[in-house]
């Protein structure tokens, strides 16, 4: 029972690994930007005065958070093509990620907005700020600062979950690994390499989020304490 | 001269509960009026109706010639004329003192950043806190935070200022510094409507005192009325405090 490791057999595929990792990162970047936008809009919708909007946003969040991601992928992918909409694989994969992470983001952002004391909003109203200005300056900014660790943690999880989009043949890191191991017959080594690459991506992402947080939250940078 | 603030037969209900039962009073320009009364008598509600944080069911409210109870009221214009300071300071915790003060001028009046900064320096000098301009609220004492809140309101150059028990959350040894700032404002000619439990302040600084009881203006008169209450309710209130 001795296994002879042969990582050399994987060397010819280094470009494929790199491309896969870059695709994973690109998908993640798109999903973070659009998922955050949807999450914020949805969190605002759940606080809106319109019961219809509240219920619509609530339904979306609960639906996504209570079904498996892989089912969501198939639902969106085959659902779209059966109504005649053909998206490129990459776009379809990003779409499933956005729909998925948007719901989790909405819930995190909502929790953050719930921590804003009503007195804050009244003070802003008394100063003459408009509703959109209050949402941006007095509710969203401190709410996002408060939930930033939870939010970025969710984005890292999403990056890892993006490996599931290999199921619809998105050419990301996991799909690359599946191909490489079938050509090289070195499955064990391939998945070790891929695990290390995912780990590296996760660390990279965490560092990037940390740096970005220092940039956009000056209070945190200067005081170093949670808000 | 027309009143800066006037309430005429104002009725306000929260659901079934009537909290203001026909409140009428006026504040002349430059006048300082203190509102006193037991907790729950409707003092905060009366104040919050003046800048329309609450809407009323009937009656009329006017502020600087503007009908506050008009549904078509320009809220932004109203709130440029009237500032408010709260019991719980309500500074924005993620912003520095300067940013707290300049937020409204920059957003509402589109004041350029350099000019807004100059305004912040000026109002902070007036409350004696120019050295705290770049601090964050959590780095300040309660009294300092409340003075910043006053400065933040002043930066919008309001014609009328509303104060709702602004020293009630403070340790006794910190109330003095806030009251002193308010007294200076009053001497400078600011029109002020002040809900307070500080009887000494009401007697010394207010031109007129309004005693509210069960949602009504119960008794009103100059500061000296506190030494000579006419109604048994005010007598009892003054004897037992809050
Ligand atoms: N938003 C609200 N909803 C329901 N009842 C309220 C609300 N605000 C105040 N009240 C009630 O109105 C009454 C007067 O309150 P308030 O004006 O805060 O009194 P005061 O400031 O004199 O202590 C109290 O009985 C209080 O419980
Ligand atoms: Mg009150």
TrEMBL record, chain A:
Pfam family of the protein (one): BPD_transp_1
Domain named ABC transmembrane type-1: residues: 21-209
Membrane-protein topology: Multi-pass membrane protein
Keyword Chaperone among UniProt keywords: no
Superkingdom: Bacteria
InterPro entries documented for this protein: AA_ABC_transptr_permease_3TM (IPR010065), ArtM/GltK/GlnP/TcyL/YhdX-like (IPR043429), MetI-like (IPR000515), MetI-like_sf (IPR035906)
Record-stated family: Belongs to the binding-protein-dependent transport system permease family. HisMQ subfamily.
PANTHER family on file: ABC TRANSPORTER PERMEASE PROTEIN, MEMBRANE COMPONENT OF AMINO ACID ABC TRANSPORTER
Protein name, entry field: Amino acid ABC transporter permease
From TrEMBL, chain B:
InterPro entries for the chain: AAA+_ATPase, ABC_ATPase_HisP-typ, ABC_transporter-like_ATP-bd, ABC_transporter-like_CS, MetN_ABC_transporter-like, P-loop_NTPase
Gene3D superfamilies: P-loop containing nucleotide triphosphate hydrolases
Membrane topology: Peripheral membrane protein
Pfam families: ABC_tran (PF00005)
Main location class: membrane
Alphabetical list of PROSITE patterns matching this protein: ABC_TRANSPORTER_1, ABC_TRANSPORTER_2
Subcellular location(s) per record: Cell membrane
Gene Ontology terms, MF aspect: ATP binding
Entry-linked CDD domains: ABC_HisP_GlnQ
Domain annotation ABC transporter: ranges: 5-239
Keyword terms: Amino-acid transport, ATP-binding, Cell membrane, Membrane, Nucleotide-binding, Transport
UniProt similarity note: Belongs to the ABC transporter superfamily.
UniProt xrefs under PANTHER family: AMINO ACID IMPORT ATP-BINDING PROTEIN, GLUTAMATE_ASPARTATE IMPORT ATP-BINDING PROTEIN GLTL
Name of the protein in its database record: Amino acid ABC transporter ATP-binding protein
Native species: Bosea minatitlanensis
